[in-house]
Design goal:
three-stranded antiparallel sheet, single chain, eight-stranded parallel beta barrel, binds flavin mononucleotide, 16 helices, alpha/beta
């Protein structure tokens, strides 16, 4: 199925596997790429050296195009962009709006720039700065998310910008893909659905928690890091929601220190990134300290398999997903179903 997204990025199908911290590693990304969709490597939780290694690992497993997700406000964003350019990565994805300078540097090197946005005005801003496409994530999406549902946000953004728009938040099947195309999107991006594949390295016990979840087991909370964050409701989430501020802050400082060691950041860089986040998201100091918690809490679940001690970011779709196909099976199934839906429309005329 050819769309503006497939033409722009060179993939076969208008499907994106998004950058998820500790989840979207070389194995998932290369399996997605080999299935003909656009896999995006999550890099915020990697050192710059590890990022280069991970990119090379993906390249050793696939010839197909793929992308890398970056934190636009990271102190070393420039170094990371250079790694992408040197390694010939096709697509740069951003969690926050990249600066016009970064966009220009990437585009000059032939890298396609696709920021993720959660509001129409952010889409308009990055489009004006030269982004090639946007992923627009509605409220039902996993991880940090906005307040407006995909069904409202998507047509609003499609009408506001002239670049291709990729829909995210709540997609898991072929019907969703056709619905997004009907709204004017150029494809769909999915996080939770790709996390729940046999190619994802997330431990089995954690996948089992997602599969068992109903839609009402997926909650939106600010208790973990001060920002609206969608995840599975667990005892830990309930405890954080109920715990006093001082205890939460002490946890946050401990986790920030552990994350600094893992990410290879100096305290100076960590503080720089923290200040950038504080400024971008309008956080108070206590909220900022809580935000330092997130990478370590996510790692506890996604890498260490601790369903009790970790945070399991999840979209509402976790409540309707019931199996663990391979990426190839998933992509094939979605594209077949999308074709069937389109055929049904044609024969109903
Ligand atoms: C476990 C998990 C981790 C995530 N980590 C990140 C991240 O590190 N950076 C980011 O930009 N988005 C992150 N997200 C958001 C996803 O990239 C994606 O936008 C979202 O999952 C789409 O909604 P869906 O889950 O309904 O498909 C994460 C989502 C999940 C489920």
């Amino acid at each position: 199925m050819e769309t503006a997204l497939t033409r722009l990025t060179g993939v076969r199908h208008p499907l994106v596997q998004t950058g998820m911290g500790w989840v979207s590693g070389p194995r998932l990304v290369s399996a997605t790429a080999n299935a003909g969709a656009l896999g995006i490597l999550a890099s915020a939780t990697m050192t710059t050296d590890r990022l280069r290694e991970a990119i090379r690992e993906v390249k050793s497993r696939t010839e197909a195009p793929f992308g890398v997700n970056l934190r636009a406000d990271a102190a070393d964003a420039g170094d990371r962009v250079r790694v992408l350019v040197e390694e010939g990565v096709r697509v740069a994805s951003f969690a926050l709006a990249p600066s016009p300078g970064l966009i220009a540097e990437l585009k000059e090197a032939g890298v396609v720039v696709v920021p993720t946005v959660g509001a129409r005005r952010h889409a308009e801003k990055v489009a004006a700065w030269g982004a090639d496409a946007v992923i627009v994530q509605g409220a039902e999406g996993g991880g940090h998310t906005g307040a407006v549902a995909t069904t409202v946000l998507l047509p609003q953004v499609v009408d506001a910008v002239r670049i291709p728009v990729v829909a995210a938040g709540g997609f898991f099947d072929g019907r969703g893909l056709v619905a997004a195309l009907a709204y004017g999107a150029a494809g769909v991006a999915m996080g939770t659905r790709f996390l729940l594949t046999s190619d994802s390295t997330v431990p089995d016990a954690v996948k089992a928690r997602y599969l068992a979840a109903t839609v009402t087991d997926v909650t939106l909370t600010t208790a973990v890091d001060g920002l609206p964050h969608r995840m599975l409701r667990t005892d830990l989430v309930a405890a954080l929601e109920g715990s006093g501020r001082t205890r939460a802050l002490l946890h946050a400082v401990r986790h920030a220190s552990a994350f600094r060691k893992l990410s290879g950041l100096t305290w100076r860089q960590l503080i720089h990134d923290g200040l950038a986040t504080k400024h971008a998201k309008n956080l108070t100091w206590p909220q900022l300290l809580l935000a330092a918690n997130t990478p370590m809490l996510l790692k506890s679940a996604m890498v260490d398999g601790r369903t009790d001690a970790g945070v399991m970011a999840a979209g509402q779709v976790a409540g309707v997903i019931e199996d663990l196909p391979s990426c190839a099976e998933l992509v094939d199934r979605i594209m077949k179903e999308a074709e069937e839906v389109r055929e049904r429309f044609r024969s109903a005329r």
